[in-house]
Amino acid sequence: MTLSERPRVTRLSFDAATVRGWREPDGRHHDWPVVYMITDSRKVYVGETTRARHRLRQHLDHPSKAGLREVRVVIDEEFNKSACLDLESRLIALFHADGAYAPLNRNDGQQDSGYFERTTRYQPLFDKVFDRLRTEGMFRRSVDEIENLNLFKLSPYKALNDEQLVAVDGIVEGLLEDLTEGRESASVVRGGPGTGKTVVAIFLLKLLRDIQDSGSGVDPSDEGRFSDFFLDGNRELLDGLRIGFVVPQQSLRKTITSVFRRTPGLKGVTVLSPYTVAASPGIWDLLVVDEAHRLTHRGAGPTRGAFSQRNRDLFGEMSEGRTAVDWISAKSTHQIYLVDGEQTVRPADVSRTVIDGLVARASADHRFYELESQMRVSAGQGYLGFARALLTDSPVPARVPASYDLRFFDDLTDMQSQILERESEVGLSRLVAGYAWRWTSKGDVSVDAPHDISEDGVELRWNRTDTDWISSEGSIDEVGSVHTVQGYDLNYAGVIIGPDIVWDEDHGGVRAVRESHFDREVRSVRDEHELLEYIRNAYYVLLTRGMRGTYVYVCDPALRERVRAAISAEHQ
């Protein structure tokens, strides 16, 4: 078989006689690693095995596969166990996001692991498998189009790395123990931007729901990392549990709600705001809190009154000093917090001390998990250090792989043009900026609405929606703020560092410019060092959105030269 003909895809009917009589001429129906798909007109089950015919016979005997009609088996002479596990998990995630076929797989510990010649040898083979399946109508979109969808980025079918798997394993095992013993619990997962905290949360919720919904007994054909959780006793422990997913950011809540509605098992998980939790009747059995560092300690703007009212309703005379973290604790028996203290961007967010307290308590109870591996930005962990230090008094040189597209721009027109090109090539490319310009156009969606940002002859408007802005119509012609992009991924981010942060030649350091910053909550901070930290944190979030590349433009001339020097340092 020539390279162009590989891998081969064998199709057969999913019935006892056909499976029993199936033979491959090279014997690879019996003792060879393969990936297979069992389908009807709309559903698909994806698996991998080294004993294909035996595994298919097991599936025939299990009620969960009743009604499936056809099998496709992907066979290649160079397949090994690692490659098949990789292809299996990738196909499940692609099927789920694309929507032409709904995967029947449960969450059972798909692992993202490196192996020999993964990129050079096996990825081209996987691409051929996908192209063949798409030609046969099993996918509607290209891989690039699927990977740009929120449903793919937030998919519970994502393969997890070792750190993420350890966290999920430990949390579920601990929760089952706590439920058995009848004790309350609080777990914490901490990680920087791009370490996959939200993916862990959604994977965990899907796993718990899969255990709740599993039938009596374990499917003998399933032997994943979490198979031992799918036992009758565990299903009974979780049966009827009231589970909620708390998302502080309004924009992200709608996106996640949409993902849950399209994901089997997650339709029954309620996506909540902290305010909804506080006002909800009864006690939740489990609340999973994403971006818990964005929980509030006093409300912001129009929500301050509601915050005070929720506190009084919950704690009465003891409400002084209470935060939304206290709401979560008071309204649930078990909590799982996903946190990153470095992404606090507003004074209304809970303090670093509160987050440190959650970590300390979870650590004492052996319920604390750390995520360190960078999953978003292809430049790797070193880029996070660069992004963190870029707007300090001592910026570090950009030591990033040449494959990561990090560029400095002297002219905003050029940067906008390049972002538009990246959008046409790969999509998900946007301009983002610090809140260093008034939102004059707020509420005006007409074509004659005033422009908010004017630099280098470029006139731009802030985002016209607060909800899922990145996917909204017209967002490529707008500029997103930290409040619309935190928690989201971009392929390319064009970051405009505004006049709210400058290099002060007289004092030899970076300084915040209060009068050039227009987030009223941040601007009201009186301490100059604290003000600078909030503004830096916001830019850190913006600088860590781009998976494939980050483009940077700086308004202040003196700071521009320092940032240029850091970015222009020789890439490794």
From TrEMBL:
PROSITE patterns: GIY_YIG. Transmembrane segments: none annotated. Residues 31-107 form the GIY-YIG domain. It comes from the Bacteria. InterPro entries: GIY-YIG_endonuc (IPR000305), P-loop_NTPase (IPR027417), SLFN_3-like_DNA/RNA_helicase (IPR018647). CDD domains: GIY-YIG_COG3410. This is DUF2075 domain-containing protein.
